[in-house]
Specification:
This protein has a domain at about 20-105 and about 440-475. It is globular and about 90 Å long. With about 525 residues, the protein is mainly beta. The protein contains five helices and 36 strands.
């Protein structure tokens, strides 16, 4: 017992927990859980969009073929529901089963592979493919608001090579093919893409021709690469005639992961690489853990931990001046636009990287910051599976594979000459049901726009539950004590108590006094 108590004293003071406001359940089908979920607000409503990548309709059962990344006989499914936003701002302690209002339930003509949102989060899109005889066509369905309701347009992309990823931007789409001789390609959207007719009444819009992106250079892909992933994002430029693209790629080999991040501008038909960063990470990482024994106390052992291929994603501020992306386990990269290029001329470290056109420094510059998710807290030392940033790039929420959510905050970065790191401020611990942990599928940061500026965070869980929390208030923090340790770590306490009991009984039986 003394050893257990000593261990309890080593607990780290947890981060504050935002004050819970509302929990509402959505109808859940345990046999068909969504691959992705999106939370959004429009007017007085909050919308929950569930995306099923390769759902098998009843009339297609038995016709599914394909074991790789392309399949036939399956279809994408997008289901959207909504509720009044005001309900999520009031405090309620119990789970509410109020019915959501169904907005639409769309079955696609082929499987969905990726989703994307514009920086203002008012539009989102699905990438899906359809096999026609012996060739594959790639489509993007973009959802947008027209007359207060969600409508959509289907667009077909040029080419038939597999599309690895895409990004929906204002007026264009960036996408990457695998394989390709360029890192990405761009197609512009028609100016009237959101005009009537809409949805089922609209014809499929052909896009193209495409603009080839930054060309691949020699040894861009390492020898004996086993896997590859890429994420693409448009970024803000003060020059409206400059197209600025950020890309981050990860290649996996038998021994290492290679990360390659590039920021490039399209100037007069030529791609100019502004900044490029590279890093490598071994497949296995050595970690130490404390081995507790009853007689000699504790000692540390080394173990090799396999690093998994990261799930690449990104989050942007509303003006696309900030972008955040994970790249390896719990590490993430932040790019921030700053208007202080003139002041940075006198910074020896940064001045060599200032953006130049024909030798002249331009006013645009992006600061780069590598960070990790609260590495001092063990529960956050896990793979990042998703992140989101608020409109101003000052609040960041990251959720990990163990379904903890960490909220970071900082000052506005866009008029600074140095980049301030993200500071962990709050955390939402793993949410469990009787059947186990409930995976977090989507997180949304929202401000009510009032004079006081009340901030909220919304969580969508895989089983359809949506929770809201106030970021301006915290729940009463439970003190770290022997009692709290027993409550939080009861499985460990039970096992150790059992071992001690067996040891004592054995000693009494074999060495009676």
């Amino acid at each position: 017992m003394a050893m257990i108590y000593l261990v309890s004293l080593l607990q780290e003071t947890p981060l504050p927990h935002p004050a819970k406001r509302y929990t509402v359940r959505n109808h859940d089908d345990p046999h068909h859980r969504p691959n992705e979920m999106l939370l959004s607000t429009v007017g007085e409503f909050i919308y929950l969009t569930s995306v099923y990548f390769d759902y098998t309709p009843k009339d297609r059962e038995g016709y599914t073929h394909g074991v790789g990344r392309q399949k036939v006989g399956v279809a994408g499914l997008v289901r959207q529901v909504r509720k009044p936003l005001r309900l999520f701002l009031d405090k309620k302690d119990s789970i509410v089963d109020d019915d959501w209002e169904l907005v639409f339930d769309h079955t696609f003509s082929g499987p969905i592979t990726k989703i994307s949102r514009t920086p203002d989060k008012e539009r989102f899109a699905m990438l899906y493919n359809v096999l026609e005889d012996q060739s594959t066509k790639y489509f993007v369905r973009m959802y947008y608001i027209a007359d207060g309701v969600f409508e959509y347009k289907d667009m077909v992309l040029p080419g038939n090579t597999w599309i690895e990823t895409f990004s929906l931007e204002d007026g264009l789409i960036i996408y990457a093919r695998d394989p390709d001789s360029h890192r990405f390609r761009i197609v512009f959207l028609p100016e009237n893409i959101m005009s009537a007719p809409h949805s089922d009444n609209a014809a499929i819009v052909p896009l193209g021709p495409s603009i080839a992106g930054d060309p691949m250079k020699r040894w861009h892909q390492p020898s004996k690469a086993l896997d590859h992933s890429i994420v693409l994002s448009g970024l803000y430029s003060s020059d409206p005639d400059t197209l600025r693209i950020f890309s981050l790629e990860v290649h996996k080999t038998t021994q290492s992961y290679f990360v390659n991040a590039i920021l490039a501008d399209l100037l007069d038909g030529t791609w100019v690489r502004r900044v490029q960063g590279n890093s490598s990470h071994e497949i296995y990482r050595d970690e130490s853990f404390e081995q507790m024994v009853l007689v000699d106390g504790g000692y540390y052992q080394q173990k090799r931990v396999l690093l998994h291929m990261p799930k690449l994603s990104f989050a942007r501020s509303k003006d696309a001046k900030t972008v955040v992306t994970p790249y390896m386990k719990n590490m993430f990269l932040t790019l921030d636009y700053t208007n202080q290029a003139d002041a940075l001329k006198f910074n020896k470290e940064e001045s060599q990287y200032l953006f130049k056109n024909n030798g002249t420094i331009i006013p645009d510059y992006y600061l780069w910051l590598e960070d990790a998710v609260v590495s001092s807290h063990e529960v956050f030392d896990a793979d990042i599976v998703g992140l989101t940033v608020n409109d101003h790039g000052t609040t960041l929420a990251i959720w990990t594979e163990n379904d903890w959510v960490c909220v970071f905050q900082r000052e506005s970065p866009h008029d600074q000459i140095i980049q301030y790191p993200w500071e962990p401020k709050m955390a939402i611990d793993q949410i469990r049901s009787v059947s186990g942990p409930l995976p977090v599928k989507s997180v949304m940061l929202w401000n009510d726009g009032s004079e006081k500026g009340a901030d909220y965070i919304f969580l969508a869980l895989e089983n359809g539950i949506v929770q809201s929390y106030s970021l301006n208030e915290t729940e009463k923090q439970r003190p770290v004590s022997f009692r709290s340790f027993l409550q939080d770590q009861w499985p460990l306490w039970t096992v150790m108590s059992l071992v001690i009991s067996v040891y004592v009984i054995n000693e009494v039986q074999h060495h009676p006094s």
